[in-house]
Specification:
Helix content: 40-55%
Mean pLDDT: 87
Number of domains: 2
CATH architecture of the largest domain: 3-Layer(aba) Sandwich
Radius of gyration: 17 Å
Distance between the termini: 34 Å
Order of helices and strands: EHEHEHEHEHEHHHHH
Low-confidence stretches: none
CATH topology of the largest domain: Rossmann fold
Strand content: 5-15%
CATH class of the largest domain: Alpha Beta
Strand order of the largest sheet: 2-1-3-4-5-6
Largest sheet: 6 strands, parallel
Number of strands: 6
Length: about 220
């Protein structure tokens, strides 16, 4: 039986996916998560075979969630579920440890196929993506061009996204269960690493990077 954890901030989407997937004789949904910050902990607690992860999650976006889950629970297979048919997102998802990328307008059969493929150790990409994307990923991964974002720690990424979403230092501290002073230190370090001077630049960077989308 393939155990599956669903991560999507829309309850009705999780319910629908659960009903569809559990209609398969070899699949079982063992949990659902609505906040990106909670996904990694849920993965560690429930130990699913597959994490089906929405690209745009509140708290921490799906790309960074994938990276964190890959670091902390490397045996879990990750499938990104996204409305964005964007090659850049696919390549970043693969770089961050995802084994599959499925578009939300794909049929349920495609998601089922993706789950079975990644459990079997294969890679799955929704059409129109193909081996060309994989080759682009491999080429990109083989290059050592410095990317300041890659130097950020997982905590700095969490602080960055929450700050970009408009949370104050105190609110970020409460959400992450750390002190406001620690938030201030993380924020100062990430701003320095990224070469950003103020909050406006931080928000602009997050949007350009695809980490923050103003309209869902």
């Amino acid at each position: 039986m393939i155990s599956i954890l669903l991560a999507d901030d829309h309850h009705i989407v999780r319910q629908g996916l659960q009903a569809l997937l559990e209609a398969e004789p070899d699949m079982q949904v063992i949990g659902g998560v609505a906040d990106g910050l909670a996904v990694s902990d849920s993965v560690e607690q429930l130990r699913p075979d597959v994490l089906v992860l929405d690209l745009m999650m509140p708290g921490l976006n799906g790309l960074d969630v994938a990276r964190l889950v890959r670091q902390r629970s490397p045996k879990v297979r990750i499938i990104i579920l996204s409305m964005h048919a964007n090659e850049a997102y696919v390549i970043q998802a693969l770089r961050n440890g995802a084994s599959g990328y499925v578009l939300k307008d794909a049929s349920t059969d495609k998601l089922v196929e993706a789950i079975r493929d990644v459990v079997a150790g294969k890679r799955y990409l929704s059409p129109p993506f193909s081996e060309m994307v994989i080759e682009a990923y491999l080429e990109k991964s083989s290059k050592n061009a410095a990317d300041p974002y890659e130097t950020l720690t997982s905590r700095e990424r969490e602080v960055m996204l929450l700050a970009a979403e408009g949370f104050s230092n105190n609110e970020v501290a409460e959400r992450l269960s750390i002190s406001p002073r620690t938030v201030e230190v993380h924020r100062s370090r990430l701003m320095e690493k990224l070469g950003l001077k103020n909050h406006t630049a931080l928000v602009k960077y997050a949007i350009q990077r695809g980490l923050l989308i103003m309209e869902r």
